[in-house]
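Incident log, structure service

09:12 report received: a user says their structure output differs between two submissions of the same chain.
09:20 pulled the input from the user's history:
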Amino acid sequence: MTLLDRLGVRLPIFQAPMAGVSTPEMAAAVSNAGGLGGIAVGATDAAGAAVMIDAVRARTDRPFNVNVFVHATPVADAAREAAWLEALSPLFAEFGAETPSSLRAIYRSFADDAAMQALLIEAAPTVVSFHFGLPGAEAIAALKAAGCVLLATATSLEEARAIQVAGIDGVVAQGWEAGGHRGVFDPDAPDDRLGTMALTRLLVERTTLPVIAAGGIMDGRGVRAALDLGAVAAQLGTAFIACPESAADGFYRAALASEAAEHTAMTRVISGRPARCLANRFTKWDAEPHPPVPAYPIAYDAGKTLNAAARTRGDGGFGAQWAGQGAALARSLPAADLVAALAREMEETA
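09:34 re-ran on a clean worker, output below:
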């Protein structure tokens, strides 16, 4: 039985679960259209996740994916954080805002969140996926016992082998082209920056896991290319940002429709982890000398606060406008229409 058969999904089109962008409305629309919709709950707590899961289930009886962050527990460094805030202080001043006096870890890792683990075991969505790493064996076993199919992101063969050993059911091969946060287990380790094509073939040949290709895929031709490489499906994120069901704000949508979409940049300054973003004022500031970035998600506390201050003055250039290298190909279609277009394009190139 293939992974898609096991999931009960008709099309090899997975909508990436993007924190802050994907919504229950989007996930349900994609699932109802025959793909696999997804929501991300890493930026909320168990109560918030329960509301989101219920909202998807109110709109579809089809399978969907619930994604969690499994980052290492951040280690606070008061001196590093103070230096970071000092470096950002001229930007806060530009927008008439007071520089924060301290920073905090705004997200809990799934590995440290017993309440979130209990919720997902009880809710048992068809798919639970992990980003930034893997939880402990006990949590994995409990989710599998609840009937969840488990996926995890890998950016290298080493990470994929760890995913296979842990008993995960499938691997998302995230290429360097992908928008949003790199799924690297250790953001401070050397990164070979493998592209989607090379990584997908590598994982197909060197692991026994079903592979979902992710990164830079924007249309049905890209989906077909991923399948030709041996992937069982393609995961698209940036392709769905311009959909009306997306939670992307006006600044984000305007940037995606602008020349900025042709110049994405990998940066740590927004959140503390490497992530691919539309070129904006924050990515340009990153090119200037600055102190070491605090740990994820402590640095994100500063990034979000600065973005909020800038937005009050009409400047959207400090947002987390995550996007992959194919961003200029984004289409403003309802999610269901986009899935239909992807399926049609995929079949036309079969």
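09:41 both user submissions now match this output. Likely a transient worker issue. Closing.
09:42 reviewer note: The first strand starts at residue 13 and ends at 15. DSSP finds 13 helices and eleven strands in the chain.
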